Amino acid sequence: MMTRQISTALPIFLIIYVIQEAVLNQFRLPGGGFSLLLIFTLVWAVLSSPEIAAFSGFTAGLLMDLSGSSSGPIGQWTLLMVAACYAVSYFGSGNESLYGNPLGFTLFTTSAVFFIELAYVVTGALLGV
Q: Most CB contacts within 10 A, which of 11, 23, 61, 122?
């Protein structure tokens, strides 16, 4: 079961990464834009088990570290994404109101994106970036 979920997730993450790097990075939006891979990974993590979410976070974090637009050290996004995806999946796994309420699901994912971006700034300051 886990092998099937991983083999399904990996090509999807690669496609989202290519779309992010080829298309979305070309748009110059105020505030720096957005990361489709980050949003997609957190949505995937909320709907997955904690183990699959941690693997998804590792894959997405590694892809984000390898991105040309990433300015931090290698491994910073990977560390944050593994921890965040596991936490989001763990907190969202027993909460049935997330699956039945689209507003709660959106608010949960949006707040997770905010806290990951905040953690990126804090860890960047700690690492001297």
A: 61
pTM: 0.84
DSSP conformation letters of the chain: -HHHHHHHHHHHHHHHHHHHHHTGGG---GGG---HHHHHHHHHHHTS-HHHHHHHHHHHHHHHHHSTT--S-TTHHHHHHHHHHHHHHHHHHS-HHHHH-HHHHHHHHHHHHHHHHHHHHHHHHHHT-
pLDDT tens track for 104-128: 788 888 899 899 989 999 999 998 8
Contact (Cβ atoms closer than 8 angstroms) between residue 43 and residue 109: yes
Assigned token pair, 69:
């637009």
Average pLDDT, the chain: 85
Query: For the chain, which residues score pLDDT lower than 50?
Result: none
